[in-house]
Amino acid sequence: MNIIITETSSPVPEILIEGTLADKAKQYLSFLLQGKRQNASQLIMEAIAQGVTIKEIYMDVFQPSQLEVGRLWQTNQISVAQEHYCTVSTQMIMSQLFPHILTSEKNGNNLLAICVGGELHEIGMRIVADFFEMEGWDTYYIGANTPTNTIIDTLNVQHFDIIAISATITYNILYVKELIQSIRGAHADKEIKILVGGRPFNIAPRLWKKVGADGCAKDAPGAIQKAQDLLYLDNQTVTEKMPSEPYEELLPITAHAMSSFLQQKDTIIKNAVDEAVRYEDDMPYDSMKKETIIRYGFEYTTRMLEAVMAVGEIALFEDQITWAQDRLPHDGVQSKNILRLFKIYSKHISTSLSEQDASEIQPYMSWLIKRQEQLMSDVSFC
Ligand code: B12
Fold first, then answer.
1. Which residue's alpha carbon is at the smallest distance from atom 65 of ligand 1?
2. Is residue 2 in a domain?
């Protein structure tokens, strides 16, 4: 199959200008966007031969390139095929580097590295695990989408000094929380140190505590430092104050309201879809496609709402709603559609739940509606 690769004309973002290997990162990504993974691989191998470390390659070439690939997809400058090509090529090149990673002397510690169930983003966790390996840890990296029972079984037969859990998609933080509860529940007799990380934890710095972890770090070097603190400092020294955040917190909703919402969510989605398809005449698709897109949007909103309501972190909503302004118009969903869809969804929460349960959820929907209106007025005034 031929994939058509177009070179992007977008301005080079800060992230690729700033790192110490900025030129290499630009060249690397440019090769991948042109479909030249052999050249990209060669560039990395030559850099290693010249004395650039694997850690530098990971942090200053692979990580910024991947973030940039995400931005280019979000703004519709590259296709999903190009994003997949870049990601798969980087994973392939990382595998070529594996022999260099395994040369360190062992320090006697071991790490279990997991991407939470449902999570397909695995490069961040892999980079973190490889950093531990390079520091002399034995690592047991089990990658993307690992079911909880397998993890519990693994812990029954082997002790790990640190369990590292990664999530990238915001709604997966719920599974992180559930996984941590299951691990602690199944191994209540052991002292288990759990480190979490990934995109939502970087967006909402208080989140790690709310999911029940022992610590969090924003990147791979930070993860090593945090693991050492957890292992070698006493608990009191490690205990951190919750960082303050520019975003407000809402009260996490009660178990009763959450369970009513979960019971009714299929009905809410169904009724909201039925109503929305009648309205959204200006979406550039036939009625089947329009319904599919609207249904997907409501399902996504539902998962996001459930996750954010469980932790009360509005910073996570802010990230989603600003992301949607960039991305969704390319899928035929304009800002005014988003606003109308939120209003319809909100109405069906009120009609499907008791007044008390709905009143706990509505502050979240009101925040979304208000913020969407604000974003639309910002755009029309500039
Ligand atoms: C590659 C990619 C994919 C690939 C992943 C393939 C793979 N095998 O990994 C595929 C195609 C599967 C994918 C799918 C989707 N993706 Co995607 N993806 C990306 C992309 C471009 C790169 C991810 C990456 O490799 N990052 C590089 C690593 C090194 O960075 P990192 O993960 O942040 O890791 C560092 C730190 O966070 C930290 N860290 C990470 N884990 C841990 C763990 C611990 C314990 C610690 C301490 C630290 C730590 O250390 C790491 C190293 O320094 C990102 C862009 C982005 N900004 O991340 C989008 C991105 C994450 N995806 C996005 C979306 C929307 C999706 C989809 C929903 C798209 C869709 N409609 O289907 C699906 C969801 C799939 C799912 N259920 O998981 C959005 C999320 C937007 C948002 N606001 O939520 C992003 C941001 C793209 C964008 N800009 O729009 N995606």
1. 169
2. no
